[in-house]
Design brief:
Blueprint (H helix, E strand, L loop, with lengths): L2 H12 L2 E4 L2 E4 L3 E2 L2 E6 L2 E4 H10 L7 E3 L12 E3 L8 E3 L5 E7 L2 E11 L2 E13 L2 H16 L2 H6 L4 H9 L6 H19 L6 E3 L2 E3 L13
Antiparallel strand pairs: 1-2, 3-4, 4-5, 6-7, 8-9, 9-10, 10-11, 12-13
Helix pairs in contact: 1-2
């Protein structure tokens, strides 16, 4: 910006600012709670113009105010947002989950592993933390999904009883406390008694099979 043009912008800008100690309070027009100043014929956020006048160039990244005074546009009370991707979510392919960087070298992985058998609209998810790079986290997510696809959890349950399978299903389920309590009540008070004791499950090439007695819904349920 040329010296004369900059001086004119500075004079126009100063006319819309009120000093309050070391704060500069914007008194001009605003949009969505932020001061707006016309720069080169286009609206620009007032804190960015203040930054331009103090540093000779507009900031490269969005600004965030560091003081608690609303409307303050003082450039020394603003900073550019960091470029770190921490907290940013990155979607995994085909709606299979997402990754979120918690801090440098640490990622939270959330993987969709299926749907709730009692509510097909609800997706069942697993989450865990991976130390390393984004590619390490992505690889861990793919490995977890692959293991879920081949049925590791079902194969583990197939070595035990039907009751163990129920517990294996219920324990990691993401349920509200009241819903979990209701499901546990159905298992303890209706399903286990109806089975008449533990039943063993055997796995075959065609899948997991068991012979269960025919039973209706628990009394009091639709």
């Amino acid at each position: 910006m040329e010296i004369d043009a900059r001086a004119r912008v500075a004079a126009r800008f100063a006319a819309k600012v009120r000093s309050d100690g070391d704060h500069q309070i914007w008194t001009g027009g605003a949009s969505n709670g932020l001061g707006v100043f016309k720069l080169n014929g286009r609206p620009e956020k007032a804190p960015r113009v203040a930054w331009l006048l103090a540093n000779g160039a507009l900031p490269d990244r969005p600004l965030e105010r560091t003081c608690a005074v609303a409307g303050c546009v003082a450039p020394e009370h603003h900073r550019q947002r960091p470029t770190s991707p921490a907290g940013r979510r990155r979607a995994l392919p085909r709606g299979s989950g997402h990754l979120r960087q918690r801090s440098p070298g640490s990622f939270t992985v959330e993987v969709v592993i299926g749907t709730d058998p009692l509510d097909r609209r609800r997706k069942v998810r697993e989450s865990f933390t991976v130390r390393g790079t984004f590619e390490d986290a992505k690889a861990a997510a793919e490995e977890f999904r692959a293991r879920a696809r081949i049925g590791d959890r079902i194969n583990l349950a197939a070595k035990g009883t039907f009751g163990e399978l129920l517990e294996l299903w219920l324990e990691p389920a993401r349920l509200a406390r009241s819903t979990r309590k209701t499901y546990q009540g159905y298992i303890d008070n209706h399903i286990r008694p109806a089975l008449g004791g533990p039943l063993r499950i055997s796995s075959h090439s065609s899948g997991v099979k068991s012979s269960l007695p025919v039973m209706g819904p628990p009394s009091g349920c639709d």
